Amino acid sequence: MHIIDGRKIASDIISQLKTEVTSLAFQPVFCDILVGDNAVSVQYVNLKAKKATECGIKFLRADFSKEITTENLVLEIQKLNQVKNMCGLIVQLPLPKKIEARVASDIIDPRVDVDCIGQARRNSFYEGDFEIIPPTAAAVVNILDGLKLDLRKKNILIMGQGELVGRPLSYLLEHRGLNVNTADKFTANTGELLKKADIIISAAGKPKLITGDKIQPGAVIIDAGTAEDGGEIVGDVDFESVKNVASAISPVPGGVGPVTVAMLLRNVINVAKKKQIIRQ
């Protein structure tokens, strides 16, 4: 069985981005807004800061108290939209429950919404604008392409249809004309779909959703799910039971996650390139 090394894939992308940044006439700025002090969120923000800096991108971390109101957060985001050379602005999720996440996300300037979470940017994506692609969906596509499979001959199943991964990923693969089935918690024949799938991409956020007895021998498993289990971040796949059945699998951690960060930074660079063209 092949274990997909997301860290190696991400490292190669970061190296390429580093080269691309040196060709820019200015240093792009990437800002991550952190509300509160959730330990997992802080860890993830620190990782993005490290990788952005490796690329030569200027990283800004905007910290706000968990007591901030939605109205005041909106005002702060509007200020950050105006920062010189801003090429990527994101709000670290999840936000405290008192914050209206949709309101905060939608106030991000769609031109720098590199997480693709605001409605305006999302609408552009579903209209075929791929300058900014939801990072986790882009990461999964990158991993699939790296496996050098003839995807046109594969039966692909996407578990979960959330706005961050499942739905945009379905759109990207269907846009290529591939054979894509989807399943969510309302799907009645999930077991049948799993058994027939050559490639299973799971983004449901449910630990041990995919076990070895549910898949066909030789299936490729991309685990894009994240959930907390016993204080640890885990995926959807029961790795131990699947590893002797699947032909390839992306682990959690070390699979889709690192590639997602790299594709997020790819979006930042794409925005920077567009800004540079406009200025010329």
Could you characterize what this model shows?
The protein is an alpha/beta fold and 280 residues long. The chain has ten helices and eleven strands. A hairpin with a 2-residue loop joins β9 (227-229) and β10. The N and C termini lie far apart (50 Å).
Overview in brief:
This protein has 280 residues and is an alpha/beta fold.
- Annotation field: number of helices: 10
Strand content: 15-25%
End-to-end Cα distance, whole Å, is: 50 Å
| Radius of gyration, CA atoms, in whole angstroms | 19 Å
Strand order of the largest sheet: 1-11-8-7-5-6
Shape: globular
Annotation, overall tally of beta strands: 11
Low-confidence segments, ≥5 residues, pLDDT <50? none
What is the SS-derived class? alpha/beta
- Please trace the helix and strand order, writing H or E for each element: EHEHEHEHHHEHEHEEEEHEH
Give the overall pLDDT as a whole number. 95
Largest sheet: 6 strands, parallel
What share of residues is helical? 40-55%
